Amino acid sequence: MADGKLVTAADLDLVATSDDGLPLNLRTAREAADRQAIRQALAQAGGNISGASRLLGISRPTLYDLLKSYDLHG
């Protein structure tokens, strides 16, 4: 696996290329993950905000804030 005491991203096949379509900064990556999780929770909860917030482990007001900030509709 690693050639020494240090494990690098290349050892774990984690080297990102510029054309892999993945976000290159943490904020963008987090927003994409948040959006996906919110959409999935809403789908599983049948569009119910309270149910989706329970699935996500956040409060209903927090979910409303996220929906607004990401311009998603619940």
TrEMBL record:
<dbReference type="InterPro" id="IPR002197">
    <property type="entry name" value="HTH_Fis"/>
</dbReference>
<dbReference type="InterPro" id="IPR009057">
    <property type="entry name" value="Homeodomain-like_sf"/>
</dbReference>
<dbReference type="GO" id="GO:0043565">
    <property type="term" value="F:sequence-specific DNA binding"/>
</dbReference>
<dbReference type="Pfam" id="PF02954">
    <property type="entry name" value="HTH_8"/>
</dbReference>
<protein>
    <recommendedName>
        <fullName>DNA binding HTH domain-containing protein</fullName>
    </recommendedName>
</protein>
<dbReference type="GO" id="GO:0005634">
    <property type="term" value="C:nucleus"/>
</dbReference>
<feature type="domain" description="DNA binding HTH">
    <location>
        <begin position="30"/>
        <end position="68"/>
    </location>
</feature>
